[in-house]
Amino acid sequence: MNWYRWAGIATTALLCGCSATTTIDELRPTLTPTEIAPGERIVILGRRDAGHYETDRDFVDCVGNKLKGLGIGILPEQEFIDAIYPWFEPRTAPKSLGRLTRLLEDPFVKEKVDTKDLHYLVWLDGRTETEGSGGSMSCAISPAGGGCFGFAQWDKVSVYEAIVWDLTDLTEKGRIRVDSSGTSYLIGVVAPIPLLSPVKNDACKGLGKQLRSYFATEDD
């Protein structure tokens, strides 16, 4: 085998394998930040359909952590779901503003929302997927030792959308879509060396940064 060839591939992967391309699109009626009073909170929910689809819970937590630096209260997702059980379970959660409006006409549900000091609900919908792969990797063990040799790569894409609903006047404040893509590599030179493209992390950073621009505390 030509070791110089593999060294060249490894160098290229090191330069390119840890980067991702991220684009953000947004739609909102005004560029003025949405005000939130001290003590009011936001809940971020991942969209789920029972049995076959679920927005990553760790991604929901990641976006929530990006907003905490603003001094805005973030109500944990599971705490909200448990408090208003069963209306935000996968089979019953309102997927449209019209359904949410009808749900909040129920005095019990409205009281639960009010006692949690919720002002905004952010729906997160999306996932990270592997779209293509190539290369090969072989590993062997012998009395003299063992190791792996080869090269593999795969493409990953993260696509997420956030929808911001105002729970006080029951309006939609905006939508943000983030697309992040990149190629990850696995280089086998004795030991497998993974070089992973941080597509999900970059999508979280981009979406969190954009959501931060949506909210302003009264002290800002």
Shape field? elongated
* Strand arrangement, major sheet: 1-9-8-7-3-6
Label the structural class: alpha/beta
The number of distinct helices, counting runs of at least 4 residues, comes to 6
Order of helices and strands: HEEEEEHEHHHEEEHE
How would a textbook summarize the main sheet? 6 strands, mixed
Oligomer: single chain
Return the average pLDDT rounded to an integer: 79
Number of domains as seen in the coordinates: 1
Percentage beta strand: 35-45%
Low-confidence stretches: none
How much helix is in the residues?
A: 25-40%
| Strand tally | 10
Could you tell me how far the N terminus lies from the C terminus, measured between alpha carbons in angstroms? 62 Å
Radius of gyration: 22 Å
Name some characteristics of this structure.
alpha/beta; 220 residues; 6 helices; two-stranded parallel ribbon; elongated; six-stranded mixed sheet
Q: How would you describe what is shown here?
A:
With 220 residues, the protein is α/β, with parallel strands linked by helices. It is 29% helix and 45% strand. A six-stranded mixed beta sheet has the order 1-9-8-7-3-6. Strands 2-10 form a two-stranded parallel sheet. Strand 7 and strand 8 form a beta hairpin. Helix 2 crosses helix 6. The mean pLDDT is 79.
